[in-house]
Each structure stands twice: as structure tokens, then as C-alpha cells.
Amino acid sequence: MSDFRNAPEAAPPGVPVSSGTPGEQGPRTSGDPVPHARAKGEPRFPEGPKPDPAGSHFERRIRSFQPRRSRVTTGQAEALRRLWPQWGLDIDGQRVIDLAELFGNDHPVVLEIGFGMGEATAQMAAADPDTNIVAVDVHTPGQGNLLNLAEHHGLSNVRVGNGDAIILLREMLAPDSLDGLRVYFPDPWPKKRHHKRRLIQPAFLDLAATRLKPGALVHCATDWEPYAEQMLDVLTAHPEFENTQPGGGFAPRPAHRPLTRFEGQGLDKGHVVNDLLFRRVQR
Ligand SMILES: C[S@@+](CC[C@H](N)C(=O)[O-])C[C@H]1O[C@@H](n2cnc3c(N)ncnc32)[C@H](O)[C@@H]1O
């Protein structure tokens, strides 16, 4: 059976990165790459994702993610360099993407926002090769992991987006271009003063509705119950979405959604997981 957890690690020569995820690093051995200090302005991954692809071109806004310095393993770094030209997509906000050209076919396209380490994304892509997935995150190690999984499993139906999904939706996707939207375990931002950072709120849904085709499915899941209630409230109140559940409320977890890494952590803490399945209304 295929393993969709950490992608297989290759040991490329001379890669200036850590040799493990935080807290998992063993002692350095002679076979490890020698770290080298990058010169000022030298890109971390010359052929890979840009550090801030949209740069200051777009106004600063409240972000749903926390920029974090992330350790990248040797295998992830190598994937970012080698595989980015084939699977990567920098979200620079500079052009509207032709999705048929991007994937080389006109299969339905689903956007996944916040794929984390990408295991669930890869699993869903492998299980449904006739659906294209644009998977977006700002998390560099996860991008490397998903690239490795894409190569390992030969996933021609995945593209790995680097940057803010809001800029992708607003600047780079045409109206009515998406057949679905997946948001699995978005950052819950539990503190009240941070609630404004939560992704699923009315303004986000206004934008998403314009990019989703009528009938397109919006699938969200969270292990943070107050956020689940908020999602249910804002999706139910939004005129462009209707609940797929006849009586309203949360949906049973669909069999096609794999367990995600964050979900597993939430379950370990005894959290309750809620799925929401809404549809963009047909007019
Ligand atoms: C809590 S993690 C969940 C990851 C994964 N879905 C899982 O369940 O394991 C949320 C992810 O969403 C990403 N994220 C949040 N807001 C984003 C945005 N506006 N654009 C792209 N990625 C975003 C974060 O970087 C983070 O990796």
C-alpha cells in the first residue's frame, strides 16, 4: 500500500538545510550536507518557490496564516529545486491562470487552501486522477513534501501553489473557474483578538463564490468547535451557498476525505471533528 506520509527522502549533494524536522534532528554525520551561509539576496531555492511571490505589490491585509521560519529537510529542499519548475506555481498575483493550460487538460479543478504537509492532498489526487487539484500553502517544508509525493506517486493532477490563497482567488483565477474548494483544518485562531484572521468568514465567501462555478462543492473540516459553528453560521447565511445536508447542519465525514495530519493531532487531544459540505447555488 502506498505511504502518503513523509515523502521519501533523497540526499542531494551540497544542500544547505537541516537534516530533519524540528525536534527530530540527529547528530550531524560526515555524510550530511555542509551548511553554507547564503550571501545577502541569494535566493534559498533559485529554481524553487519565491520567498514572497506577491511581494509588496498588493496592499497589506490581515492574513490567515502566520509567516514562520521553517526548517526544510534535505529531501524537501532537493524537491523544491528539482520539481518546482514542473509542479510549482508562485502566487504572484500578476496574471490570470489558464487552468486547462496549467494541467494540460480540461478536467474539473478543485482548489485546496492550506494543505500543510500535503499527505491528504496526495491521497485524494491519487484516488481521483480525473480531478485536478491546485493546492496552496505558504509552508515551505510542506511544499517540498507534496512535490516529493507528487513525483513518487506520479500525480499529474496536482499543482503546488506557493503564497496567499486570497491573492490566487482574487487576482489569478477567472470567475466561475473552480469546481470545488477544500479547506481542511484551517488555522483556528482561537484567541478572540485573532478571530479576524480566520479564513472562513463572509468576505472570503463573497470572493470564493465568484470563482466557483454554480453547483461547485465547498468542503470544510475543523476540529475547533467554535470555528465549526462560525463556519456553519456564515455559510448558511451566505446567499450564494446552500447546505448539501437536507436538514442543515454538519455533514457526515465523506469517505473520500483522508485523515489529515492536523486532524490526527486534534483527535489525539479529544477534539470533535466537523465536516461542512455546501454547494454554490445554481441560478
Ligand atoms: C492548521 S494547518 C492544516 C494543514 C492541513 N490541511 C492538515 O489538516 O493537516 C493550516 C494551513 O493553512 C495554511 N494557510 C492558512 N492561510 C492560508 C492562505 N491564506 N493561503 C495559503 N495557505 C494558508 C497554513 O500555512 C497552514 O499550513
TrEMBL record:
Keywords, comma-separated and alphabetical: Methyltransferase, S-adenosyl-L-methionine, Transferase, tRNA processing
Keyword presence, Nucleotide-binding: no
CDD domains: AdoMet_MTases
Catalytic reaction(s) noted: guanosine(46) in tRNA + S-adenosyl-L-methionine = N(7)-methylguanosine(46) in tRNA + S-adenosyl-L-homocysteine
SUPFAM superfamilies tied to this protein: S-adenosyl-L-methionine-dependent methyltransferases
Region (Disordered): 1-73
Keyword S-adenosyl-L-methionine: yes
EC number: 2.1.1.33
Function of the molecule: Catalyzes the formation of N(7)-methylguanine at position 46 (m7G46) in tRNA.
Protein family membership: Belongs to the class I-like SAM-binding methyltransferase superfamily. TrmB family.
Annotated protein name in UniProt: tRNA (guanine-N(7)-)-methyltransferase
Organism, as annotated: Streptomyces nigra
Lineage, highest ranks first: Bacteria, Bacillati, Actinomycetota, Actinomycetes, Kitasatosporales
Originating gene: trmB
